[in-house]
Amino acid sequence: MLNFGRNRGQTRSNRSVPYQGLEYVDPKKKSNVVGKILLAATLTALCIFMLKRSPNFNTPSPFSGHEPGITHVLVTGGAGYIGSHASLRLLKDSYRVTIVDNLSRGNLGAVKILQELFPEPGRLQFIYADLGDAKAVNKIFSENAFDAVMHFAAVAYVGESTLEPLRYYHNITSNTLVVLEAMAKYGVKTLIYSSTCATYGEPDKMPITEVTPQVPINPYGKAKKMAEDMILDFSKNSDMAVMILRYFNVIGSDPEGRLGEAPRPELREHGRISGACFDAALGIIPGLKVKGTDYKTPDGTCIRDYIDVTDLVDAHVKALEKAKPQKVGIYNVGTGKGRSVKEFVEACKKATGANIKVEYLDRRPGDYAEVYSDPTKINQELNWTAKYTNLQESLEIAWRWQKSHRNGYGTPAVMSS
C-alpha cells in the first residue's frame, strides 16, 4: 500500500530537503518572484503603449513600398570601388538606393560618405549581408520593394582566381543564382549585371565585339560567363529586363574627390595596376612589378582598354534607363583603344610626378596578351560614349584622392565574410 503521508523520520525542521524529486519553495520567495514578473509585464506593456503613441511607430519604411516616380535600386557590392561610384551617381540622379555588402572587399567608409551626402530619409540605406546566405537575401527582398538590381558584388582578381578557383565559382556564380532566385520570388523585373571582358578570354582578333566567342581562360572569367548563362537561360521564360555589361580595365575616381579606390592592403598583390602605381608613388611599396614582357605586342607588355569609373557608371545608368521587359541587352563598355602596360606606367609617372621604380617579372597566371573593345553597339543603342579617355588625366584625378586618403577610408570595420 502506497503511503502519501510524511515519512516517519521526517521532522518540521527539514522542510527544505528535496522530497520525492521536488524542492520545497518558500511562499514568501514565490510571492517575490511573482511580483517581479508582474512588474516586468507592466513595464513592458507601458513601453509598448508609449511606442504605439509615437507617430513613427506604425509608419512603414520608405524602402518597403513602391512609390510612383521613384525607382528603388538594390546595389549589391555597393561599398566597393565601382559599386560605391555607381551608388553615388544613382543618388545624384534621384534614385532610391539600398546597398548590400558583406564588406569583405568593400569599405564602410565609402558608405558613410554617401550617407553624409544624402542624409534625407528614404534616399539611402545600407544592409550588411552576404549574398551567399540565401535566408538573409530572401529577408532583404521580403522587407524591401526593389524595382531593379545592379549586381556588382564579386571577387574580381584574375590572379587570385587561379589560386582560389572554388572561392570564385561560389562567390560569383552561386551568389548570382541566389540573387536571381530572390528576384524571381519577389517579382523584381530589372537586372543590370556587372560582367567582364574576361569572359572572352584571348580572342584571335581585335577589337572585341559582343559576338566575339566567349572562351574564358581563368576561373574569374569562367565564373562570370556561368553567371551570364544562368541569367540568359532564366530570362528566356520570364518578362525580366536584362542588361549585361562586359567592361574592361577600370581606372580613375570621382572627379569631385569624394570617393576613390581603397583595396585591402593584403590584396594589393592581386589588385589593379593603378593601385600598385599609386602605392609605389607613395612609397608604400618599393616599386612596381610588371608581370610579363614577352607577349606578342609592340613593347612586349599586355595591352588593355582602360575605362574611367565615371564613364563606367554612366553606362550602367543608361542601361537601367533603357532596360525593357523581355529584352536582353549585352554591351561592351570600353574606350575602343588599347594601351600597353608600359604606356600606362609612363602615364602614371607623369600623373604622380614620382620616379617609380619598375621591376619586370614573368607572366601572371591566367593573363592574356591583348584585349580592347569595340564600343559601337553601346554607342548606337544606349547613346553612350566614353568621355574620360585621357589616361593621364584619369590617373591625375585618382591620384589626388589617393594623396589625401593615404589610409583609404580609414580603419575598416571589423567585419568580414
From TrEMBL:
Pfam families: GDP_Man_Dehyd (PF16363)
Domain NAD(P)-binding: from-to ranges: 74-389
InterPro entries xrefs: NAD(P)-bd_dom, NAD(P)-bd_dom_sf, UDP_G4E
Isomerase recorded as keyword: yes
Cofactor(s) the protein requires to work: NAD(+)
Any one Gene Ontology molecular-function term assigned to this protein's record: UDP-glucose 4-epimerase activity
Keywords of the record: Carbohydrate metabolism, Isomerase, NAD
NAD among keywords: yes
Domain of life from the UniProt record: Eukaryota
Membership in a protein family: Belongs to the NAD(P)-dependent epimerase/dehydratase family.
Designated name of the protein: NAD(P)-binding domain
